[in-house]
């Protein structure tokens, strides 16, 4: 099951987060890599969020959407990863290559309760 997807032996440094729709997550699992969601393809990089920005990302871009999956990826050593200003000049991590299944530390369902996505503890 989804909750059991966890890369063994990971000592978490800084995790960054990607929200995928179920079909996007299925493609990553089946193909082992992905160019990301349509917005990633359009912008030419994979958009990630930090623990501090991911809930706002969900509210802004995924409001009311159920069946989402939250992926955690270790930022350290992920290349080419660039931190670039986005919303309100806050720096966001952008990956300039395909995302690989081996990049994923864990994946968890992102439930919706009372119209709000419920996040696991990200600290």
In this structure, how is the largest beta sheet organized?
A: 3 strands, antiparallel
Q: Quick one: how many beta strands? A: 10
Average pLDDT reading: 90
Indicate the structural class.
alpha+beta
Strand content bin: 25-35%
Bin the helical content: 10-25%
Shape label: globular
How big is the Rg? 13 Å
Distance between the termini: 23 Å
Our count of helices gives: 3
Order of helices and strands: EHEHEHEEEEEEE
Question: Which sequence of strands runs across the widest sheet?
Answer: 1-4-8
Name the poorly predicted regions: none
What does this structure look like?
With 123 residues, the chain is α+β, with helices and mostly antiparallel strands. The protein is 20% helix and 33% strand. The strands form 4 sheets. The chain has a 3-stranded antiparallel β-sheet. Strands 3-6-5 form a 3-stranded antiparallel β-sheet. It starts with 14 loop residues before the first strand and ends in a 6-residue tail after the last strand.
């Amino acid at each position: 099951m989804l909750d059991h997807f966890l890369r063994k032996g990971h000592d978490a440094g800084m995790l960054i987060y990607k929200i995928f729709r179920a079909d996007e997550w299925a493609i990553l699992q089946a193909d082992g890599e992905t160019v990301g969601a349509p917005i990633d393809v359009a912008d030419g990089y994979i958009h990630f969020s930090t623990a501090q920005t991911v809930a706002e990302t969900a509210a802004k871009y995924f409001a009311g959407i159920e069946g989402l999956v939250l992926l955690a990826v270790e930022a350290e050593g992920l290349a080419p990863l660039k931190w670039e200003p986005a919303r309100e000049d806050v720096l966001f991590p952008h990956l300039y290559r395909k995302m690989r299944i081996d990049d994923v530390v864990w994946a968890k369902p992102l439930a919706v309760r009372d119209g709000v996505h419920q996040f696991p503890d990200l600290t």
